[in-house]
Amino acid sequence: MSEKPASALPPEGTTDLPHFVSDAPFDLRSVQTLTPEQEKIYFASQLTLMWWKFKKHRIAVWSGIFLLVIYASVFISEFLSPWNYQTKHTRYIYVPPQGIHLFHKGEFQGPFVYDLKRKLNLETMTREYTQDPNKIVKLSFFCSGDNYHWMGLIPADNHLICAPTGKPFFILGTDRLGRDMLSRIIQGARISLTIGLIGIAVSFLLGIVIGGAAGYYGGWVDMVVQRIIEVLQSIPTIPLWLSLSAIMPASWSPILIYFGITIILGLLDWTGLARAVRSKLLSLREEDYVLAARLIGAGPSRIIGRHLIPGFMSHLIASATITIPTMILGETALSFLGLGLREPITSWGVLLNEAQNINVVAIFPWLMLPVVPVILVIIAFNFLGDGLRDAADPYK
Questions:
Q1: pLDDT tens, position by position, for the chain (396 residues)?
Q2: Terminal C-alpha separation, the chain
Q3: Which of 104, 187, 247, 282: disulfide with 85, CB 3.0–4.6 Å?
Q4: What is the CATH number of domain 184-391?
Q5: What is the DSSP secondary-structure string of 318-375?
Q6: Residue 104 near residue 112, CB atoms below 8 Å
Q7: Cα gap 391→396, rounded to integer Å
């Protein structure tokens, strides 16, 4: 055997070998020559990598932009609406949608609509409206119109577009009380869209906490949680909605009913997420990094929140983008059945409640227009969820 060099032997009187490991920070550039493209990728953060991959999903990007625009509109919905959504135009009941024109008799007049003539059809006992080609109603932008309270707090009367007082301007028609459908759809978005966000917060809080506890501790905790989930999932959804909605007193204000419906939707939708979280934690809790966290004294809440949940963040993102439209549909269904929100508050479900009678829909089909934004929002959330799920795993 060859003897160790003197420099490698420990000093006399000691038993420790010298420390040969450099404590200088490691720099990849010192051991490998990187091109600018490689350096850009190797030193990019996780969020940067996710953004690069998300941008490649064009449909998801456009869906995200659409959702950002429509969610931003809820803050200025009164300004975007031509009329106050509660204003009743008694002379214009069940007016069909009007078209906006730019030219009148070959001359440019700016945006305008034609005035309406009204007559009563004695056979069908309905009002019939026809355009008056000799009278135009010019439209104004950034004008003063119906009074309203912004967010229910600040009085104002500014609108993006409006017509002269008393003149007809109904792009999407009016309902049985002469209320403008476009204004009601725009302002109904505030309730229908935010109810999904608040509901998902309740659902995710319950699903992650309860499912995380079941998956991390196992044993009797897991057994109790699973039995509760099985009981809740065995109850038919519609009867459960009906019973919980019936609990809310009829004397409650619309705001209390709004929060009540939100909590109901959140309490009923956490079971699927809880099972997904539980199954993921059962497999991840045996990993070495979890054991290392335990050995250094990390508690269960820190291990679950800082080490386990980020390991399946892509699944949580996909679940969120699926659950939000589910809750929007839930509110729409309850309000459509007359068991959710009710007047004077408005939402897309409340508007669709007007279209329950098939005979009314056959005569006034524009009453079904509130279903269009519901469909668009749900499709956009599905496309956005696909893009976010793929972007959450940028190394795949």
A1: 445 454 555 555 555 555 555 666 656 555 556 667 666 666 667 677 778 888 888 898 999 999 999 999 989 998 999 988 888 888 888 888 988 888 888 888 888 888 888 888 777 777 888 888 888 888 889 888 888 888 878 888 888 998 888 888 899 989 888 899 999 999 888 888 887 777 788 888 888 888 888 887 878 888 888 888 888 878 777 777 677 667 777 677 777 777 777 777 777 778 878 888 888 787 777 778 888 888 888 887 788 777 777 777 767 777 777 777 877 777 777 777 666 677 777 888 888 877 777 777 788 888 888 889 888 998 998 888 888 877 776 556
A2: 50
A3: 187
A4: 1.10.3720.10
A5: HHHHHHHHHHHHHHHHHHHTTSS--TTS--HHHHHHTT--HHHHHH-GGGGTTHHHHH
A6: yes
A7: 9
Q: Residue 183 and residue 173: Cα distance in Å, rounded?
A: 10
- Give pTM, 2 decimals: 0.76
Instruction: Give the three-state DSSP class for 238.
Output: helix
CA-CA distance, 8 to 14, in Å (whole number)? 13
- Exposed, middle or buried, 388 (CB in 10 Å: 0-12/13-18/19+)? buried
